[in-house]
Write a structure and sequence with these properties.
Radius of gyration of chain B: 13 Å
Distance between the termini of chain B: 36 Å
Largest sheet of chain A: 7 strands, mixed
Strand content of chain A: over 45%
Helix content of chain B: under 10%
Order of helices and strands of chain A: EEEEEEEEEEE
Distance between the termini of chain A: 36 Å
Radius of gyration of chain A: 13 Å
Number of helices of chain B: 0
Helix content of chain A: under 10%
Oligomer: heterodimer
Largest sheet of chain B: 6 strands, mixed
Strand content of chain B: over 45%
Number of strands of chain A: 11
Largest interface: A-B, 27 and 23 residues
Number of helices of chain A: 0
Shape of chain A: globular
Order of helices and strands of chain B: EEEEEEEEEEE
Structural class of chain A: mainly beta
């Protein structure tokens, strides 16, 4: 298995909802990433997990809560989001100590 | 000024044309990446370079470390090459610094 999968592909939620995004890889990669991408902009790094521990949090608001339950799975829990949080959320993974990142197809999130 | 600058921002060409996208960076890097993103889609890694030149099919990527410059070339361009091409640099492991992207449209 040589890909990063993300579910769901699309998500529409209200500002009071709680939802989660899921990312999975079975390549044995030990670093996993969450990015946010607005239209016509490059991705912005949100979080990095290394060996299942949070190693980078790019000052992301607490309404986004990451979780790495095991080395293959990365979740992003969403609560009380704002309409401006609507974006494409991309997950990526990379092998230990490597520069190259492998991206998933993304979850398109719309907050109403 | 962005640490990674790409040019042009937008490029429209006819099928079959030779395409060049440029990337300049102002920071020390451990590697440079060329990425491709189709509309509404995920990102695909095309090349990772730390020196010299790499070729994959109709795509060629070069890097000049002294001049802090890289180019992505597409030969015999095709409408399916239409996408956003993103240059990104690694500063050590884990962090990528992205350029703003080049939106390429190839007309039949």
């Amino acid at each position: 298995d040589t890909e990063v999968t993300q579910t769901p592909k699309h998500l529409v939620m209200g500002m009071t909802n709680k939802k989660s995004l899921k990312c999975e890889q079975h390549m044995g990669h030990r670093a996993m990433y969450w990015y946010k991408q607005k239209a016509k902009k490059p991705p912005e790094l949100m979080f990095v997990y290394s060996y299942e521990k949070l190693s980078i949090n790019e000052s992301v608001p607490s309404r986004f809560s990451p979780e790495c339950p095991n080395s293959s799975l990365l979740n992003l829990h969403l609560h009380a989001l704002q309409p401006e949080d609507s974006a494409l959320y991309l997950c990526a993974s990379s092998p230990r100590g490597a520069n190259e990142q492998f991206f998933g197809p993304g979850t398109r999130l719309t907050v109403l | 000024k962005n640490e990674v600058e790409q040019s042009p921002q937008n490029l429209t060409a006819q099928e079959g044309e030779f395409i060049t996208i440029n990337c300049s960076y102002s920071v020390g890097i451990s590697a440079l990446h060329w990425l491709q993103q189709h509309p509404g889609g995920g990102i695909v890694s095309l090349f990772m370079l730390s020196s010299g030149k790499k070729k994959h099919g109709r795509l060629i990527a070069t890097i000049n470390i002294q001049e802090k410059h890289s180019s992505l070339h597409i030969t015999a361009s095709h409408p399916r090459d239409s996408a956003v091409y993103i240059c990104a640099v690694s500063q050590g492991a884990q962090k990528l610094v992205f350029g703003q992207g080049t939106r390429l449209t190839i007309n039949p």
